[in-house]
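re: the backbone from monday

yeah here it is again, tokenized this time
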């Protein structure tokens, strides 16, 4: 659920955000991510608010991968339990269209709590259940969650830890979804206002299933470490240079150990 604060006073608020990402790597597969969000909030009182958020995300590949588009709507009722704790209950609805694959729809019921004990620490947790339907196939239900913690010990320094579980379509296997359960950690340090040194590492367990038969076909255990440097070119554009080591242990033939150099340009408007 989006949003971290209850609006002061009554009335509506809305924000439109559009992102464009383009990533190149030594694998010579170009991936373009385009995402847009309309984030709206209406303050019902000083302690409660209602959110209705809409989003669209497209993944386009130049290479042997499957393009996908997801449209979603997420609604939530927020209530300030205390000055430092915000509670929410809501639902998310999504439609997923994947190249050469059956269309999918999903509904999530979510409960969330946001705790801000001080200016340097924020803990955001949500948990729920997802009901997924597959056109011409078998639907399935699964649990979803997200736990995120952010700590700012010094000016310009940020430490984040995120754990999550979700389902997404496979970009390289026809007719398959993957349930991803993982954890990611990041340390970020700002230098000279416009430069950022970032170290990210993570692990995930990916379980693949045929969406037409629900047969489990593959399980991966994926580990990565990625140091990078980011430069804020302007207020709306940034450039990143990174190196990534990744190790994937798979029950199929998809296991690998790889080193990857990347250039990424982010444009936000």
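seq for it, each position gets an aa:
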């Amino acid at each position: 659920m989006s949003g971290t604060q209850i609006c002061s006073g009554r009335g509506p608020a809305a924000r439109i955000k559009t992102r464009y990402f383009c990533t190149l790597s030594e694998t010579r597969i170009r991936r373009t991510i385009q995402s847009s969000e309309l984030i709206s909030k209406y303050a019902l009182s000083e302690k409660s608010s209602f959110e209705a958020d809409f989003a669209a995300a497209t993944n386009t590949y130049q290479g042997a991968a499957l393009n996908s588009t997801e449209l979603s709507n997420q609604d939530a009722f927020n209530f300030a339990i205390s000055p430092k704790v915000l509670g929410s209950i809501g639902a998310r609805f999504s439609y997923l269209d994947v190249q050469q694959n059956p269309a999918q729809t999903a509904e999530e019921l979510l409960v969330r709590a946001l705790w801000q004990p001080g200016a340097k620490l924020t803990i955001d947790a949500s948990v729920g259940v997802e009901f997924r339907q597959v056109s011409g196939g078998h639907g399935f239900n699964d649990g979803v969650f997200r736990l995120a913690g952010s700590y700012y010990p010094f000016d310009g320094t940020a430490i984040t830890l995120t754990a999550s579980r979700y389902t997404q379509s496979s970009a390289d296997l026809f007719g398959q979804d993957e349930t991803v359960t993982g954890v990611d950690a990041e340390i970020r340090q700002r230098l000279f206002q416009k430069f950022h040194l970032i170290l990210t590492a993570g692990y995930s367990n990916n379980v693949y299933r045929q969406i037409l038969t629900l047969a489990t076909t593959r399980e991966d255990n994926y580990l990565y470490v990625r140091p990078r440097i980011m430069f804020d070119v302007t207020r709306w554009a940034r450039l990143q240079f990174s190196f990534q080591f990744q190790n994937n242990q798979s029950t199929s033939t998809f296991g690998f150990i790889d080193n990857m150099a990347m250039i990424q340009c982010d444009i936000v408007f």
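The chain has no helices and 14 strands. Residues 156 and 190 are 5 Å apart (CA to CA).
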